[in-house]
From TrEMBL:
Organism placement in taxonomy: Eukaryota, Sar, Alveolata, Perkinsozoa, Perkinsea
SUPFAM superfamilies in alphabetical order: NAD(P)-binding Rossmann-fold domains (SSF51735)
Protein name: Dehydrogenase reductase SDR member 7B
Keywords, ordered alphabetically: Oxidoreductase
Family of the protein in this entry: Belongs to the short-chain dehydrogenases/reductases (SDR) family.
Length: 119
């Protein structure tokens, strides 16, 4: 539990504070990138701590983006879905879950468009 919260909450919070206060805000430019997950909006049995930590990161990123909107820098929160080519699915014993199935024919719109970026 301590490792999960340390990596997903505590360390990302400390690193965000450091890079914003020491680099991005003084320079009035640049973007901080926070990596969350699509599971931030899900409920999952036996994974509630992980899902909650990712929910924290998503909301933290949104809040920081709002705070930075007038400071010349921004915050981008990335929320990827399941990655089938990692050990995550086997470690979680969910290789056959529908979330790890590849969906073909779907084009994801570029993140460079302003409507996708807050802050």
């Amino acid at each position: 539990m301590r490792d999960m919260l340390g990596i997903n909450v505590e360390q990302q919070t400390y690193l965000s504070r450091y890079f914003l206060s020491e680099h991005l805000v003084p320079a009035e430019r640049g973007r901080l990138c926070i990596v969350s997950s699509i599971v931030a909006y899900s409920l999952g049995s036996a994974n509630s701590l992980y899902f909650s930590a990712k929910s924290y990161l998503s909301q933290f990123g949104r809040s920081l983006a709002h705070e930075c909107r007038t400071l010349g820098c921004g915050v981008l929160t990335i929320q990827p879905g399941a990655m089938a080519d990692t050990n995550f699915s086997s470690a979680g014993d969910c290789e056959n879950s529908a979330i790890f199935k590849v969906v073909e024919g779907i084009t994801i719109s570029p993140l460079s468009r302003d409507r996708h970026i807050e802050g």
